[in-house]
Each structure stands twice: as C-alpha cells, then as structure tokens.
C-alpha cells in the first residue's frame, strides 16, 4: 500500500513541513482502510482515485487541509464513515470540505434531475463558504474524465454532458484555464467520440504544413522584437481541438476552411512592455479590423488579463496573438489557485479573487431567491456563460455583464434595490426601452421611483441569473402577500354570517384548526383560501363552535347550504339570501384576482368570480359562454361586484370594420389615444378588396369609458361599424 503514496509524497515534500506530510499520510491510511473493500471499474483499488486527486492538487501547492479533504472526498458518500468521525480525527474544516463535495445520496427526490440539481446546489453553497470545495470537485471531475473509458457508453455521455454544461463554465469562471481546456477536450471525446476521432485525424494530416507555418511566424515575431529592442518570450501553438470544433459548428465550416487555428502567446516583463510589443506585431503583420481586445485595461469577469489581437499572417492566414505579463500568465492558467492564500485572506486584493468573490455573492443571492433546486441551477447556468459586455455607470465605473444584458440586468447588477425600483433608463444620455440590449462602451443610467416594483414582463428579456432570481422572488412574495389579503377578505365575508371576523376569533380555536391542518401560521391558511386551495365557507364552518342539536348533521348541512347560497350568484343557486355579501372588486388586487381573457370584463359589467385552485379568483362577465359550461361546479362560483371607485386600466377587445383606405389604422389609433385609451394589440384582416376588420385590444377605465371611445371611433368616415367582442 505504501508505494501508492510515493507519488503524492514526492510533491508535498517540496513545500509542506514534515509534520504536515505525516498528517496527509495519516489521511491516506484512513482513506485506504475505509475504501479497502472497494475497487474502480478498471479493477484498481478505489483509493488510487482520491490519491490521484490529491496529487493533482499538490501540484498546485494546496494546503494540508485541502489535500486531506481530497483524499477523503468520497468517504462519507461511499463508506459507513460519518462526517463527525472525520471532524474528530482531522478537524471540523476538513469535515466541512468533505461534506461539501459529497452528493446527496441519502435523500429521495421526485426525479433524477432534481437530485442532481440539489447536489449541485449544496456544493455551490459549500463553495460560497469555502472555495476549496469547488476546487476539489473540479479536480475530482478532471481525474474521473481522464479515466472515463471504463464506464458504460450511456454513462460516459451523461457525465461528459454534465462536464461541458456545468464544470467547464465554472472552471472558466474561476480562471482555471488549463483545467478548462483539458475538461473541454475530454468531454468532447466522450460525448462525440466519432467526431473527435475524425477531427484528430484531420489535424494530424494537416499538421506537417502547419507546424512549418507556426515556426515561421514564431521566428518572424522573435526577430521583429529583437530589432525593436523589446524583450518577450514567444510561444506558438495550435488552438485546442474543442475550440476548433465549436467554430466549425457555430459557423457551419468544414475543417479545411478553419484557418485561424494558429495562436501565439508573448510573455513580457511589464504592462508597458505589453503595449509596446503590441505595436511591434501590428507593424509586422496587419491587424484584422475589430479583432483587438484590451483585457488588461478591462479584465474579464474571472480576472483574466491579456491583450488579444488577430493579424493577417503569411499566405493570408489569420493569426491570433495574446500578449501578457508573467503574472497574468500565471493567473490565466491557474486562476484562483495561482495565488491561493487560506489563512490570512491576503489574496483579496487580487483581481481574480475579488471577481470570484463577487460572483459567489451573486450565487448566494440566487440561492436565497430561488424557489427550488432546478430554478437555482438554471440561474447559475445562465450566469456561467463567459461572453461579456462592458458598460459604464454615469460615474465612469466599468460594469461587466453577460452579453445580451439589458438596462434591467444592469440595474440589478448595481444593487437589488435599484433593480426593484427601476422604471426607465438612459443609454448614452438618451431615454431607451428597458428591453434594449446593451453594447460595449455605452454609459447606462437607471431611473428609479420609490413606489415602483418589478414587472413580470421583465422575465421575457433579462439574461443574468441575478436579475431573473430577484424578479421571480419578488413576484412570488407579492403573490403570497396578495393571497393572504384576499383570503382574509373572503374569510371575513363568511364569518360575518356568524357576527364575527378573523381578528375576533379566539386564539385557541385558530391554533386548534391550524394543528388539524398541519399549518404553522394563520397566514398560511389565509394564503390557501386566497389562492382557492381551500373554500372560505368550509374554513369558517370549522372555526366556529359546534351548535347544540347538530348531532345528526342535518343542521350542519342546512347551515352550510345557507352559507354557500350567500356566495353563489342567483342564477346558480336560486334566490339569494338576505345575508348575501358579494366580494367587492377594487381592480388593485394584483395577481390573485385575474380577469378572464375569454370575455375581458371591465368595470360596469355584471360579473361573477370562479375560484381556481392555485390561481385565486378569475372574474368573468355573467354573459360569458364559459360560465354556462361551469354550472356543474356551483361551489366554485362566488358573488362579486365592482367597487364604486375602481382603479386601473382593463383590456377589452373591439372589432372595427372599415373601408380600405390609406392611413385608416393611424386615424383610428389617434382617436383612441385622444380618448385616453391605450392599444395593447392590433390585428388587421382584409375581408374583400374593399373592406377590412381591425381586431384591437384596448385598455379602458370602465364601461362608460369604452362607450365614449367607441362613439368617437364611429365618427371617423371610413369606419362602418364598431363592436365589442364578447368572447
């Protein structure tokens, strides 16, 4: 067993103290004993895998705790050893690291996707507490990908897809470039083995001629730097196979037409030298317009810094050149692992560490606002895509956002409260729609209002995970609050028949019912009533004390029928009782009172409410065709009326028949605007060569407002008839 430890020992002897080496060796013996009955698919002892993971991490000079956790990372998941035992022997920090990497194998989930999402959620949350959790997991995944050949083909493809979708973007976000490139190529080979084989063979065939081109360009750049008196180490290489495949797929090109597979890296001593070398290579080969990127002045989100340019090389071949300092090279290849400082937090000043911490803060916020694991993972995936856009705040500060971001994404990136109160935006000092995609170099200013709130329509165009998570969280909480308020109104309406109200109910009686229903608080009960999951009349019945003489249930059924009749429309139940208390509709109830699209009721229309489980109350007109179909569910209908002063704009559909004439649509639209209406949607259909029908959805305040608006439209000369659509 001891020879297995020699490889790791040779690495850690170079930088750990003897007592620390002994502690790592002790962890190896503990792990080997725990996994002694287990073997890998290859037939090797299982301990060889965690030992290989620890060796890879030792090559990056990780600390003792991380190496021990790497050796023990599968112990909790695959053996009877508990987290507490690891904490007792090796310390709580090691136990937390191991637990953070462990999958949730002992909990039953409704689906495999949910289980995987919950495991990822747990690991990401552990990463927020200690980034080493993710570094262990990434290294674990790297070794598993290197030894994936022993798995079944279907399992290979599933693991490869997960690697490309989740672990590669995380490695990129953490700046682990070398690890990202290897994971990409290993994932590509496992997911598309035939494509990988064909592409490797094509590259080999073309390699002889291409190696000659690489050597020629490398020599030319070296000679030009020497002539200019500039110092720099030039390294030429071919672009790695997965990036070639991605370009072929993205642009629909065959391999023979992918020319820019040549990349050169120039390592210099200082930032000043980097810009001077850039000028020299631009004098040597002409730069391709629009292909220069300055990631030194504006680093990438993961802290990466370099100058990128594309040149017209010999034979017209595009050549990519990257120029960076030795420190930037170190960060580009190893990311946060390049200068990992565990005890003191001294690394906080580094660009990579600061940016990774900012991303982790966003991950934590997304976790707090997500409804479930699948939604959380969706938001994290959205946030992991590497392409960015760089914009400025009004004070000249640079903000890095995902490409395609809008002013709303920008507002949430500044601060959650700014996003929630956003009402408008200026781009380069000009007002612009909130859904406008931002471009590099633009200056963005957000206009807020104290009483503003997120609009559900924003979810149709925001692209960042932080914006999406915050909007969804706000809307969920808003709907919950509105449901509680509506539930209290409905229950108070019902309790009025007993001459009481929610506020007047004895606390013991409320607590008893909550206990029966297994609810923790009264608000949960009110929310259920407001959302239509429980009927107010039945809840009120259970809240009231049992009446004498009600043993046979006759009196109970009589009271229930009487109570139900108070809420039922007369056309469903018969004559209403004297105690009828209709629900008054104000127009400001929010998301728990919805207005049916089939009949589009507006203030002034006779209306009824239909209780829909999970959605609250849907308001229909009494003449709606769907009302007749629902007569078989009388218990779902409740009596409703409009308040005397209803607020808000209500959509209504009208049909306008017109004579075909130039400008008729604009004339009708102008008349609607003049009358204070707003057009939501319009569709124009030609009936014959002379006549057309315009179907319009118009926002109005009331039935009287609609009548005035239709009267105005009828005065337009080409208009033949105006009708309100009744569904």
Automatic annotation (TrEMBL):
| Keywords (A to Z) from UniProt | Hydrolase
Q: Which GO terms describe its molecular function?
A: GTP diphosphokinase activity; guanosine-3',5'-bis(diphosphate) 3'-diphosphatase activity
**Alphabetically, which GO biological process terms does the record hold?**
guanosine tetraphosphate biosynthetic process; nucleobase-containing small molecule interconversion; response to starvation
Any Pfam family matching the protein: HD_4
Give the top-rank taxon of the lineage listed in the UniProt record for this protein: Bacteria
Gene3D superfamilies in the cross-refs: 3.10.20.30, 3.30.70.260, Beta Polymerase, domain 2, Hypothetical protein af1432
- Limits of the HD domain: 46-145
Q: In which pathway does it act?
A: Purine metabolism; ppGpp biosynthesis; ppGpp from GDP: step 1/1
Q: Where is the ACT domain?
A: 653-727
EC numbers, comma separated:
3.1.7.2
Q: Which residues form the signal peptide?
A: none
Reaction(s) catalyzed by this protein? guanosine 3',5'-bis(diphosphate) + H2O = GDP + diphosphate + H(+)
GO CC annotation terms, alphabetical: plasma membrane
Q: Which residues form the TGS domain?
A: 387-448
What is known about what this protein does? In eubacteria ppGpp (guanosine 3'-diphosphate 5'-diphosphate) is a mediator of the stringent response that coordinates a variety of cellular activities in response to changes in nutritional abundance.
Annotated PANTHER family = BIFUNCTIONAL (P)PPGPP SYNTHASE_HYDROLASE SPOT, GUANOSINE-3',5'-BIS DIPHOSPHATE 3'-PYROPHOSPHOHYDROLASE
Provide the family line: Belongs to the relA/spoT family.
**What is the recorded name of this protein?**
guanosine-3',5'-bis(diphosphate) 3'-diphosphatase
